C-alpha cells in the first residue's frame, strides 16, 4: 500500500538529540537537585545520561520518556537526598516547564526542515509529529523554526492520545488525515517510536541514527534504519 503520510518523532528525529538535549538534561538535573552537584549527577545517571562522558543509553527516560516518567524516576532519589518533593505532578510540571523553555532555545534541526517537508508535500506525502515532550513545547519549537503550517498533526504525551509505545498517537494521526495505518510511516530514533508504529499497524517503520540509539538497537523493530530523515526522500516514493 502507498505511504501517504509520515509521523515523525521530534527529539532525535527532527531535532539532533545531542545538540538539543544534552545541555537540557544537565539544566533540569541541576534544578531538580536544588544545586547539589552530587545529586544532579546521580539524577542524570538514573535517567540514562552519563554526566562524565555525555553518553546516553538508548531508550532511557531522558531520551525517550516524558516529563512524568522522569519525575517518577527522580522523586525517590530526591527524597532520599533530603530534597522535598510535594507531589509527582508538581515535580512533573517543574520539569515540563524547563523542557519547554530550554527545548525551544536549544532546538537544532537535523537538516533544513522547511525544504525537506516541502519536498515530501510535493510528492503528496503529509507530515505529523508525535512526541514524548509536551504539546506546548512541540508547538513552540515548530513555531520558532517557522514550520508550523507544514504539519497536518502535532501531539505530545499530554494530548490525550496515550503515550509511547502505545498505538494511540499513530491512530489519532490516521483519524485526522482519514488514512489507514498501512498508509502511514512512523519514523523515530528510539525503540518506543518503532514499537508504537508496530502496535498501530503502520505500513512502514523507520529508525534514524540522529538520536540516542544505534543501528543494533533499532534494526530488530525497523523496516529500515537511516542515517537521518533525509533518506526518506529516496525511500518513500511519490503518493501522487
In words, what does this structure look like?
With 240 residues, the protein is of the alpha/beta class. Helices cover 47% and strands 10% of the residues. Strand 4 (184-188), helix 9 (191-200) and strand 5 (204-208) form a beta-alpha-beta unit. Helix 1 crosses helix 2 and helix 4 crosses helix 5. The longest helix is centred in the middle third of the chain and has 19 residues, at 88-106. It starts with a strand and ends in a 5-residue tail after the last helix.
Based on CA atoms alone, the radius of gyration comes out at 18 Å
Tally the beta strands: 6
Strand content: 5-15%
CATH architecture assignment name of the largest domain: 3-Layer(aba) Sandwich
By secondary-structure content and strand pairing, the structural class works out as: alpha/beta
Largest sheet: 6 strands, parallel
Distance between the termini: 13 Å
CATH T-level fold name of the largest domain: Rossmann fold
**Overall 3D shape:** elongated
Q: Name the helix and strand elements from N-terminus to C-terminus, one letter apiece.
A: EHHHHHHEHEHEHEHEH
Low-confidence segments = none
Q: What is the total domain count? A: 2
Cross-sheet strand order for the largest sheet: 3-2-1-4-5-6
CATH class of the largest domain: Alpha Beta
Which structural traits does this protein have?
11 helices, 240 residues, alpha/beta, single chain, Rossmann fold, 2 domains, six-stranded parallel sheet
